[in-house]
Amino acid sequence: MMQIASTVPQWAVLCLTALLIGMSKTGIQGITMLVIPVLALTFGGKPSTGIILPMLCLADVIAVLYYRRDAEWKYIFRLLPSAILGFFVALAVDHLVPADKFRILMALCIFAGIAIMFWTEKRGKENLIATSPLMGHLFGLLGGFTTMIGNAAGPIMAVYLLSMHLPKKSFVGTSAWFFLVVNWLKLPLQIFVWENISGATVFLDLLLLPCIGIGAVAGIWLVKRLPETKYRTLIIWLTIFSTAMLLF
User: Structure pTM?
Assistant: First the structure.
């Protein structure tokens, strides 16, 4: 069996990635973006997405088991059809969009969503993102596209769900169920179309399951400790910071 990780630095990056993925899925959304660029530099862009997707799938299962009763399904059903469409758009343009321009475009879209959210809240107006069906389809499409290209849909979904002003447990539960469906649907595409997931990849990710579990427990603990307003503020700043990282 091919050995994907063979050095101490590579294993350190993988363990840190698994830990942060666990934390992200059970409450501290956006924190994974801190290590995705490092993972890409260590293993290569497309191979790194194959390494990280099974980790995400495992962490999604843990998050859903804990938050299984806290999802707002109307938002999930609103986003899913256009998110699946986003998969196929990503597959179609994968070789046409340079990675650097894609990151910039994605960051600008997320920052625009954050700006709309802040502007409507400050002026006391109806939140355009929360009330417009078109915005729901747009965010779903962007989410599906970005998760297929680089497992980077967390900030996009964070902006959309923050606009709904969900309680923290509903925010985490809705995100957990959405990504459980999306990430497991992506698996066959990456196995058979992109061919960047193998038996060696899955075996490696199973070895990292304890790190994912530790991160998941830490995420649940932090969500319980943080008041609603502080949790929302933390997610907003993590979303802004992780989006800014796309520009570098």
Answer: 0.87
